[in-house]
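Question (not urgent): is this output format expected?
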Amino acid sequence: MDESGLVSVKEATSAQILEESEATKSQDICHQFGFIRRIKGDGNCFYRALCFQLVETLVHNESAMKRYIEIKDKLLRSHEELLKAGFDENEFKDLLSTFLRVLDQLEADDREETLLGFFNDQATSDSMVKYLRLLTSAHLQNHADFFQHFVEAPSLKAYCTQEVEAMAMECDHVEILALSEALDISLCIISMDGSDGHPVYHTIPEGSQPSLYLLYKTSHYDILYKCREH
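Got this back:
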């Protein structure tokens, strides 16, 4: 991957691409996933990877119009969640506008080159990432009775300000769960950090059927594609 890029083109998975020193784990991954897409390791990789996968469903998809309506509706409704959490609309309206503009332009031009262009433009890409960070923070705060038990900080508000809303801060399981709930999506994180020679699979929420797959290794996330996907 070009070091200046934020999101790479798809590459075929192989033991060499993943990690030569962990052949067994790599073989498990390669057996199930045909392609990998690299995300820049800048502390925003989870949010950028999830955002890319969410928007990518508009590209080369027979149900693109249905997905466009679903995603746009989720984003428009998320506006209310941010207001409920106490965010001033001026804090996020431009970020949301950028997100919606990307959706509208991809609905009109669904080429992968266009998609990659948006996600590799620093300002556009970071605006979408920032919006997802604010949405994650809002969901955590709006469901504080549940989430406050899972963070170590003087308060949930302080945690959100310092660890969630700030760019370049790595995310933890609690943020992943919150964002999956906020967007009503299911994902599977395949961790290479297990010690038994095989990857560890975490489906979020538990028991759901994942539609998005992320490879996790040493605090970093990349995108995986099931072998049937091209």
